[in-house]
Design brief:
Mean pLDDT: 93
Number of strands: 7
Structural class: alpha/beta
Strand content: 15-25%
Radius of gyration: 15 Å
Helix content: 25-40%
Amino acid sequence: MSVRPLFIASLGNPGPTYTNTLHSAGHVVLIHLRNWLMLPPFAKSRPHASGLLSSSPDFTLWQSPSLMNISGKSVATAWRTFVGSLSSSEGKKAATLVVVHDELELPIGKIKVTDGIASARGHNGMKSVKAALPSGMNFTRIGIGIGRPVSRDSGDVAKYVLRKMTEKELAVMEDVAGQASAVVREMARGVR
């Protein structure tokens, strides 16, 4: 049994057009994380901003249905629904939001766990989430490394993040989900 209930939200762009793109690495990792945590299949949940939901007593996984750069409102709605569904005031106080997202500044296969109040550093999805949540609310971010193209030109970066992952990159994302599962298990036990 967990010490704190976790709501783990992934950011990415909706499918099928953006399925398995680098920018949707959060979604890819969340799908594999469901397997690592042995949770039931995802199902659409209207109360949770029509995102895909899979839950157990310890973990609730939620996939944002919104485009990455405007995902904040959906995340905030789903978070409020999750907290409202908790039965005890202790559970509501201990509940923790974890946002899983792509991270250009990390090489593929690496993850970085940071406080949500840290700078979004140009990540428009994270800017949207931070703007939609209550002011000063802390949460945890798990950045999933997708690497960065050599060019810093915004058009080249956009082309890079919207490309489909290779088979090798998809396999790496499954391994990354194993790393993320260790992190969220520690968080649920109150170790991290």
